[in-house]
Amino acid sequence: MMETKLREVLLAEDNPTNQMIFHAYLGKLGARATVVGSGTAAVRAFARQAFDVVIMDLQMPVMDGVEAARKIRAMEAQNGRPRTPIMALTADTDEDARDDCLDAGMDAHLVKPATFTAFAEALESLVRKAGKGSQAA
């Protein structure tokens, strides 16, 4: 179980099966997830509400996760919002994909499929590094 308490998590994932899996993982960790199916919807949700963490699939329709992360970082800068940790979820094991994530302002990268343990450990590490947890309004 995570030592750091997460209350609000934004999960951007277009695959319904992955949505269910990661939503269940987050529930098991005691977090409430807002689930959206595109980068555009993720940016809209982020504009409306503060989240402890954003978990972003890279390959989504309309707007991919890299572009959505860039827009979220720009929104934080424009509005003076604190930096929210963003973790990429991807099936791509390529180093270039990881670099693209980091260049877009994402803080971590997790390869799918991910076990609950791998997901929980990656999330805990991300949150601990960012010094976040239970800060969503």
Write up what this structure looks like.
Keywords: Phosphoprotein. Pfam families: Response_reg. Residues 8-127 form the Response regulatory domain. This protein has 137 residues and is α/β, with parallel strands linked by helices. The chain contains five helices and five strands. Helix 4 (95-103) links the parallel strand 4 (86-90) and strand 5 (108-111). Helix 2 (39-48) runs parallel beside helix 3 (65-79). The model has no long low-confidence stretch (mean pLDDT 90).
Give the DSSP E fraction (strand runs of 2 or more residues).
Answer: 15-25%
Report the total helices.
5
CATH topology: Rossmann fold
Beginning-to-end CA distance, first to last residue:
23 Å
**What would the average pLDDT be, to the nearest integer?**
90
User: Per CATH, which architecture?
Assistant: 3-Layer(aba) Sandwich
Protein traits:
137 residues, Rossmann fold, 5-stranded parallel beta sheet, phosphoprotein, Sig_transdc_resp-reg_receiver, Response regulator receiver domain-containing protein, CheY-like_superfamily
SSE inventory with pairings:
Layout: E1 8-12, H1 16-28, E2 32-36, H2 39-48, E3 53-57, H3 65-79, E4 86-90, H4 95-103, E5 108-111, H5 116-130
Parallel strand pairs: 1-2, 1-3, 3-4, 4-5
Helix pairs in contact: 2-3
